[in-house]
């Protein structure tokens, strides 16, 4: 049982919340199904058929994000040359998940910044 649990936790996709989204193909007016995964550390773009990870962005590189009723957009600032935008009706859920993880990251960062070095 323990070995199985360790094996599962060692998988690259362990702990990811996936959303089925549609992504516009470059140079074409065609939408392709993709899996957009959110973890406590990153945003992952996964091929819907092969389940291979196509791209990973650390959450620390996310500058802004926006959800609308039919789409979701991520801005990675200087870390990417353009926005990453997909069609989905689950934009609000994606937004809340990212916001929660970023709050945790910022909270952890603030907690470590506040630690005062011990004086001997």
Main traits of this protein?
alpha+beta, 120 residues, globular, four-stranded antiparallel sheet, three-stranded antiparallel sheet
Q: Can you offer a commentary on this structure?
A:
The protein is α+β, with helices and mostly antiparallel strands and 120 residues long. The chain has helices spanning 2-10, 91-114; strands at 17-24, 31-38, 42-47, 53-58, 64-68, 71-75, 84-87.
List the helices and strands and how they pair.
Elements (H helix, E strand, L loop, with lengths): L1 H9 L6 E8 L6 E8 L3 E6 L5 E6 L5 E5 L2 E5 L8 E4 L3 H24 L6
Antiparallel strand pairs: 1-2, 2-3, 3-4, 5-6, 6-7
Brief write-up:
This protein is α+β, with helices and mostly antiparallel strands and 120 residues long.
Structural class: alpha+beta
- Compute the number of helices: 2
Radius of gyration: 17 Å
Percent of residues in helices comes to 25-40%
Detail the poorly predicted runs.
Answer: none
Query: Please, what is the average pLDDT?
Result: 85
């Amino acid at each position: 049982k323990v070995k199985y649990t360790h094996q599962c936790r060692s998988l690259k996709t362990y702990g990811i919340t996936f959303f089925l989204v549609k992504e516009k193909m470059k140079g074409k007016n065609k939408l392709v199904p993709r899996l957009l995964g959110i973890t406590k550390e990153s945003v992952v773009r996964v091929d819907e058929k092969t389940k291979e990870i196509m791209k990973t962005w650390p959450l620390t590189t996310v500058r802004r994000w926006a959800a609308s009723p039919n789409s979701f957009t991520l801005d990675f600032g200087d870390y990417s040359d353009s926005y990453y935008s997909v069609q989905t009706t689950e934009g609000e859920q994606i937004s809340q998940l990212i916001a929660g993880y970023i709050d945790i990251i910022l909270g952890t960062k603030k907690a470590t910044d506040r630690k005062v070095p011990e004086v001997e």
